[in-house]
Amino acid sequence: SKSEIGLIGLGTMGRALALNIADNGFDVAVFNRTTSKVKEFVDDAGELSQRITPTETLAELVAAITPPRAIILMVPAGKPVDDQIEALRPLLDANDMIIDAGNANFRDTNRRAAETGDLAFLGIGVSGGEDGARYGPSIMGGGPKTSWDRVSHILKAIAADHKGEPCATWMGEEGAGHFVKTVHNGIEYADMQMIAEVYGIMRDGFGLGAATISKVFDRWNAGPLQSYLVEISAAVAAAIDPETEGPMLDAIVDAAGQKGTGRWTAIEAQHLAAPIPAIEAAVVARNLSSQRQIRAKGEELFGAAPHRIPHDILGVDQLEEALIAGKIICYAQGFEMIAKASIEFDWSLPLPDIAKVWRAGCIIRSAMLDDMAKALSEDPHRNLMFAPHFAKKLKASHIALRQVVAQAALHGTATPALSSGLAYFDAMRTARGTANMIQGQRDYFGRHGFEHINGSKDQHGPWAD
Ligand code: NDP
């Protein structure tokens, strides 16, 4: 009998996804560019191989799927996706569906959706890494709702489960799913960066070893900061390097890699004029981390920072509070960006559902997302920081964030994400800011005009002529 769905690209993610699909009782036909990997994969699939049909050509793959077909692409984003679509197109019938499950740029997904003609096209963001793909990812879908509805039973079955609710949600038309996945990754960058920053204060400011730091993260993971990222930070800090027999963390080079989704978030935020400084700071921090030699020269030239922070000035509990504040602030920025995009692209992005789909399966899953989903359900148009639950938390925790940022600055530890998060918070609680000076300058040199506080628009200052 024929398979219900097909999958192309048996790499890390594709293999895991195919096994997940089979594990959930669906027959899946698979193909991979390097065809030898297809047989290897099926041979290793054990009992699940009964549900997996290996194929060696695209024509064979297409023939193995029940029409109207649905085929998942799990190949690297960019040209490989376009190439695969081109190769499939002549083999497919009208209404057959291609589902790009890679980390596509949503603008590519918009374009592909417009180009696929009578084929159906879905762009789905899949988060959770290899384990997520195998045992339940978070899935953010985009494209025609009717196409989503055709395959949603499979996507919901393979997705993570949050207390009975599957983490697979249709976000909107075109590249809406890939857009939401991109912002997810941007938030992920900021969340990771803020954790790295408090790690830095514990290591350099407090002089704590990795094992102690691991215990701190473990403790935090039992409280309001409970999250996958804090959990794995504890595990990373606890691990021992078999070679040096010291902490693994101490043997890892401090230059972070990236595949571009954080950068895309920052670029799109600028297009949208959406202020997401904590996320941008996290992207910048990764770029800066790769400049190792320059940093080493800088240390020679300016002298080594950071310096120890006395225990009576700052403690681990304040770091926890600061991280809570920083986390609320950076998620508020991410959701504000999504709200702006929703208007700009006419997508009606479901903010509460986005918080819900992130509660399980994905890298940024956390206890706090439950409260965020609730707050956004009450009022999706309100900045998350202003929702009563989070306003109360911020009123209590911004003081610690302030102390952490101030002490880090005084002792020479860079905390770019926490600092810009704090600056965002302060700007967002200041009714009278300083852009009056900007407007004065703009009018002075360019006669751009300003609004007077009496309400009259297009006013000019007495400096004209
Ligand atoms: P891998 O590198 O493990 O696998 C890539 C797969 O794509 C291989 O099967 C490879 O085939 C195939 N492929 C590569 N180039 C082409 C091409 N030009 N034409 C056809 N097939 C090609 O990648 P991943 O599984 O890690 O990632 C796949 C997608 O999933 C990417 O978009 C990635 O960004 C996204 N993703 C990855 C996550 C992760 O944690 N790894 C998490 C979420 C999303 P061959 O065997 O012939 O080389």
Automatic annotation (TrEMBL):
Active site per UniProt: 181 (proton acceptor), 188 (proton donor)
Residues that coordinate or bind substrate: 103, 127-129, 184-185, 189, 259, 286, 442, 448
Gene3D superfamilies assigned to the protein according to its UniProt record, in alphabetical order: 6-Phosphogluconate Dehydrogenase, domain 3 (1.20.5.320), N-(1-d-carboxylethyl)-l-norvaline Dehydrogenase, domain 2 (1.10.1040.10), NAD(P)-binding Rossmann-like Domain (3.40.50.720)
Keywords, sorted A to Z: Gluconate utilization, NADP, Oxidoreductase, Pentose shunt
SUPFAM superfamilies cross-referenced by the UniProt entry: 6-phosphogluconate dehydrogenase C-terminal domain-like (SSF48179), NAD(P)-binding Rossmann-fold domains (SSF51735)
Catalytic activity: 6-phospho-D-gluconate + NADP(+) = D-ribulose 5-phosphate + CO2 + NADPH
6-phosphogluconate dehydrogenase C-terminal domain: residues covered: 177-464
Cross-referenced Pfam families: 6PGD (PF00393), NAD_binding_2 (PF03446)
Family named by the database record: Belongs to the 6-phosphogluconate dehydrogenase family.
Quaternary context: Homodimer.
NCBIfam families for this protein: gnd, PRK09287.1
Function noted in UniProt: Catalyzes the oxidative decarboxylation of 6-phosphogluconate to ribulose 5-phosphate and CO(2), with concomitant reduction of NADP to NADPH.
Protein name: 6-phosphogluconate dehydrogenase, decarboxylating
